[in-house]
Structures are given as structure tokens and as C-alpha cells.
Amino acid sequence: MVTRYAVITDAAIALVAEQGMRGLTHRAVDARAGLPTGTTSAYYRTRKALIEALVQRLADLDAADLAAGSLPSDDVPAYPPKLTAADLDGIAAATGALLDRWLTDGRDRALARYACVLEATHHPELRDILGHGTASRVQARAMLAAAGAADPDRAGDHFVACVDGLLFDRLAGAGALTAPPPGTPECRADLTTAVRALLHALTTPPLRNQRPRERRAARG
Amino acid sequence: MVTRYAVITDAAIALVAEQGMRGLTHRAVDARAGLPTGTTSAYYRTRKALIEALVQRLADLDAADLAAGSLPSDDVPAYPPKLTAADLDGIAAATGALLDRWLTDGRDRALARYACVLEATHHPELRDILGHGTASRVQARAMLAAAGAADPDRAGDHFVACVDGLLFDRLAGAGALTAPPPGTPECRADLTTAVRALLHALTTPPLRNQRPRERRAARG
DNA sequence: ACTCCTCTTCTACAGCTGTAGAACAGGCAT
DNA sequence: ATGCCTGTTCTACAGCTGTAGAAGAGGAGT
């Protein structure tokens, strides 16, 4: 049995994805979920409570996916101590496929998430609930450390920011028009290309402009 | 003299940055701009018209900045036919500094823009007005072509998506907490590092996994 | 049976929002 | 001055939103 909380918050996510935060009202959620008017208002008296529940639901869904390995923030496996270039290519392909799923099956959740992140700008308490990609961030840092990045923490943050940017661009930006349509092999290939470039860049510092000493260190 | 249209739309941008799209109401704009109640409603009868004016104003401001070279989408100069690695580093530094300005002086505009891009998901007509980063996209493609990228069009799109992602992460995401604070040299340096990695990645295809023939071609 | 408790549904209401139109003011041309 | 026109300010009002509380329904325990 699906709890009523889940029904309500899932409807809220769909609503936000379709109409933005402005469409999120108690009555609209009732209608969208097919529940009698007043239900959402009874469960979440204030609008703030409703939004927090929505954000919590997003976090819970991510956690569930992470556990199930189906549509997590990053379902790359635990890393061997040293990642080879071939490993990185594999990770890039997995990430590309993952992004493509966020663009198709996970589209509503992805859109709702971006709306909530933006909302968190003026409502800091949301940020705590969102935990904002903590899991994927930690994982990215670990991966880049295993791949021998010079500054894995910073590089990990750059990586997730750029990957988020790729996703956002396809979801809402101009990429939605110019890039190959989501759900196609071309889309996955294009995303994989981008992620692979990112990974190689973040693990291999540009040699040409390093002074000899640094260059030797980077190679070692 | 500043036209009333500008006063209204600028107030609207500030409002959206502070409170999100939900805060954008005719009366709130009046109050924010210090105009008598009803003014905004007289200038833009419907809310849709108001939003479109807001988006148009964003586009106009960008165009003005582009012309003045002060805070444009990308104020990198016209490129010489062949870009060297040192040129790329210069572009990275300029882009890092530019992003830092978007985080400080241009913060409201950047936040309002992201809100509008998200809004454009359900209101396609906004996308046309936004032109959504067309200028910077074109410029990125030209730059990557000059730098000898294999597929400059796709690489250009990846580049702007990632740079937008870096910006969004600092503005609204977790980067706002973990990264060095905007306006500092550290922030600029960190962003420059990320952009430099991006540029080198997108212009230099990863050699290790290419077959010898491609490798030779890429080098030439 | 009755009571109590939780969950659910319905209704009320004050305040806000979108939109329209009336009233007003100043300047220009006749 | 008179009339007209553009730009401004004020007011009206229907509909929606957030929030609260009353009314109802069913089940568990006595």
C-alpha cells in the first residue's frame, strides 16, 4: 500500500515539474492526485510544510534509487584504488546513460529538483533537507581521487556542477532544442562524450603550461 | 532619463531573484519600484505580458553588456585563426573572472535568468525571447573551432552547458557553501581552474584510447 | 452498546492576485 | 479657451490561495 503522504508528495512533484513552483497549491495537489479537496491542506497545513515534504520526498526517492541502484545520483560502483583511462571511459558511459534516464523517466523529478534548488536560495532550510547531491558529490570526489586528480575535492565539485549543467541544459535550456532528443542512443553518446572529456580533463592536468618540475610530478 | 519600462522590469528582475517567480505580482513590482499601486498593471495588463517584458529586459541588458564589453555572456575577443594553449588559459582566466562577476554584481540577473529558463519549460514563447545564450553559444563554437576541436558545435554546446552548471552550482547549489566565496581571488582562481580543464578537455581529445591513426591526426 | 481516537472530508473566511475600467492630469494643436 | 490625446493614478471585483476549524466515519478497546 502506498501511503497517502507519498501520493500527495508525488503529485506535488509532478505539478512543480509541469507548472513550476507557482502551480504548487494545496487544491491543485488534491486535484492532481485525485483526492478530495482539502486533503493536502489537512496533511500539510502550511504551504511551507508542503514544500518541505516535497523536497524530503525527492531526497527519499533518491536514497531509494541509490539503494536499488536504479536511478541514483551516481550509481558508479566502488572504485579500485587506481582507475585507468578505460575505467574512466566506462564511468563516462554509465554517467551518460544515467543522465539520459534523468531526461526521460526521471524528467519530472529532475525539473522539480532544479525548481527546489532555486527555491532554496531564499529558503535555506530546504537546503538542509535536499542535502543537495551530497551522495554524488562524495562519490565524485572518491572517483577523482582514485583516478589521481591533483585536487580531488575541488575537481569532484567541478565535476558534479558540470554534469548538473549538462542535465539542466538538456532539460530546460537551449540544449533541449539543439541536442539529440533524449532517450536515443545518440543522446547517450553525446552525453557520454561530454562526460568523458570532463573526466579526462579533471584527472589529467594540462601539461603544456606546466613548468618541468610540475610536469614530472604529474606524470609520476 | 530612465524609462518607466526599465524601472518596472528592473524591479521585476530583483523581485524574482529575491523571491522567485511566485513573488512576481503586479502589486509587488509597484511596491519594489516605489511606484503607485496599479502602475505595473497599467503597463503590462496581464501577468504573461509582465513576464515577457522581464525576459526581454534580461536579453536587452545582456545585449547592452555585450556591446559595452562589461558583463556579457562571454566577452572574449575575436579569435585568431589558431588558438594556442596559452590563449586557452587566457580565455579560461577571462571566463573565470566573468563568472565571478555574475556571482556578485550580476547575481540578481543570473538568478532571474535561471528562474526564467525554468519557466520557459512550460512557456515556450519565453524561449524565443531569451534566445537563450545564443551569443555565448555562437562564440563558444567559434572559439573551439579556432582551437581545433574535433566537433566544435557539439563541444561548444557542452562548454556553455558546463559553464552554466558551474555558475548555477555557486549561485544556488551546494557550491554556494563549499566553494570559496564569490568576489575573492580564490573564487576566480577556482573557477578559472575548472574552465581551463574544460577547455583543454574539449579541444584535446583523450589520446590514450584512440587508435594510432586518429592519434596521429589529432596531433597534426 | 458506548466511548474515544484517528483519519478523512467539508466548509468558512480573510487576504491576495489578475484584470478591467473609471477618473484625473498635463501638454499640444486648433 | 476648448477639445483632445497620452500617460498616469485610483478603484472595483471576481476568483484563487492559505489556513483554520467543524463535521463525519470507521475501528479498537472497554
TrEMBL record, chains A, B:
GO molecular-function terms, A-Z: DNA binding
Domain HTH tetR-type, chain residue ranges per copy: 2-62
Top-level taxon: Bacteria
Keywords carried by this UniProt record: DNA-binding
InterPro entries assigned: Homeodomain-like_sf, HTH_TetR, TetR_C_31
DNA-binding region: 25-44
Protein name per Swiss-Prot or TrEMBL: HTH tetR-type domain-containing protein
Organism listed in the record: Catellatospora coxensis
